[in-house]
């Protein structure tokens, strides 16, 4: 999968409603995470707390277990979405896995070094393999065994 697919015509890329208001609020990035996974939820909670503590604005956080089809405009089905972290930037580009984490880390105080390190030409492929094939894969299997992976949506007639 190309970690930076763009769907510029998607009306919600980089925006989200503000407390039910009709006027959307612009976000630099929109993070989609598996809130049913205790490890994922804990890590995102930590990032949210850091962002709040340091007054970092521009990051929207969405638990993907609250609604089906959130990333369908990018061709990501609900099973694929729970397998990895996904981030949509303000230009509508979908970033998955390590690329998504890098976008988060670039915006958080004390995490810029991790974003830079993870982006190094020879480290990035290793980080991708470690995340995709080991960490995310193990979390997906564990969450599936514990019943924390949403069932696929019912087929439409």
UniProtKB/TrEMBL annotation:
Q: Which InterPro entries match?
A: DCC1-like (IPR007263), DCC1_Trx (IPR044691)
Identify this protein by name: Predicted thiol-disulfide oxidoreductase YuxK, DCC family
One MF term in the entry's GO annotations: protein-disulfide reductase activity
The record ties this protein, via PANTHER family, to: OS04G0668800 PROTEIN, SI:CH73-390P7.2
Q: Please give the residue ranges the record annotates as the region Disordered.
A: 1-22
Give the classification, highest ranks: Bacteria, Pseudomonadati, Pseudomonadota, Alphaproteobacteria, Rhodospirillales
Q: Which Pfam family, giving just one, matches this sequence?
A: DCC1-like
């Amino acid at each position: 999968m190309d970690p930076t697919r763009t769907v510029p015509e998607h009306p919600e890329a980089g925006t989200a409603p503000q407390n039910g208001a009709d006027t959307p609020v612009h976000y630099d990035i929109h993070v989609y995470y598996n809130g049913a996974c205790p490890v994922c939820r804990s890590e995102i909670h930590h990032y949210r707390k850091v962002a709040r503590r340091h007054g970092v604005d521009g990051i929207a956080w969405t638990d993907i277990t609250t609604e089906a089809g959130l990333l369908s405009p990018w061709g990501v089905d609900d099973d694929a979405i729970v397998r990895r972290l996904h981030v949509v930037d303000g230009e509508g580009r979908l970033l998955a896995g390590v690329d998504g984490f890098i976008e988060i880390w670039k915006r958080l105080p004390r995490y810029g070094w991790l974003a830079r390190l993870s982006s190094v030409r020879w480290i990035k492929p290793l980080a991708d393999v470690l995340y995709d094939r080991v960490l995310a894969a193990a979390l997906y299997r564990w969450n599936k065994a514990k019943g924390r992976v949403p069932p696929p949506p019912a087929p439409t007639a």
